[in-house]
């Protein structure tokens, strides 16, 4: 199990490049909020959502990161159904955090219906800004909580 120390202020963001114009809104918002809170953010690009879980696990095993965020925009179409891809990615992210002890957060989101038309693209670009802010807040709160738990355990010794 990999356990970064409470002093670790590094977070990795893994972003899928499908629909990069939407995904990057989330990444930019999360990165800005995390850096404002004193975290260093490293960004890793993967082709699609299915590559995120293994990348998260490999990054967690390095011991460098206090948390890892995966972000993707998973739409229906092509060979794989979006619900299959989404479930597979989320299960993989959960496995990565449970195996490594490093919290892994997800903004791998699947719209119910999506069509590449300007109003929908604009809606999801704005929506992913909000999701970036929310995932940054969740990461900060969780990492701070784990640091507090670690400090309490260290004080008992």
From TrEMBL:
CC per GO annotation: cytosol; riboflavin synthase complex
Catalytic residue list: 81
Keyword terms of this UniProt record: Riboflavin biosynthesis, Transferase
Amino acids binding 5-amino-6-(D-ribitylamino)uracil: 18, 49-51, 73-75, 106
Catalysis: reaction(s): (2S)-2-hydroxy-3-oxobutyl phosphate + 5-amino-6-(D-ribitylamino)uracil = 6,7-dimethyl-8-(1-D-ribityl)lumazine + phosphate + 2 H2O + H(+)
One term of GO molecular function: 6,7-dimethyl-8-ribityllumazine synthase activity
Gene Ontology annotations of biological process type: riboflavin biosynthetic process
Pfam families in the record: DMRL_synthase
Domain of life: Bacteria
Pathway in which this enzyme or protein is active: Cofactor biosynthesis; riboflavin biosynthesis; riboflavin from 2-hydroxy-3-oxobutyl phosphate and 5-amino-6-(D-ribitylamino)uracil: step 1/2
PANTHER family tied to this protein: 6,7-DIMETHYL-8-RIBITYLLUMAZINE SYNTHASE (PTHR21058:SF0), 6,7-DIMETHYL-8-RIBITYLLUMAZINE SYNTHASE DMRL SYNTHASE LUMAZINE SYNTHASE (PTHR21058)
UniProt record similarity statement: Belongs to the DMRL synthase family.
Protein name: 6,7-dimethyl-8-ribityllumazine synthase
Organism listed in the record: Notoacmeibacter ruber
Upper taxonomic lineage: Bacteria, Pseudomonadati, Pseudomonadota, Alphaproteobacteria, Hyphomicrobiales
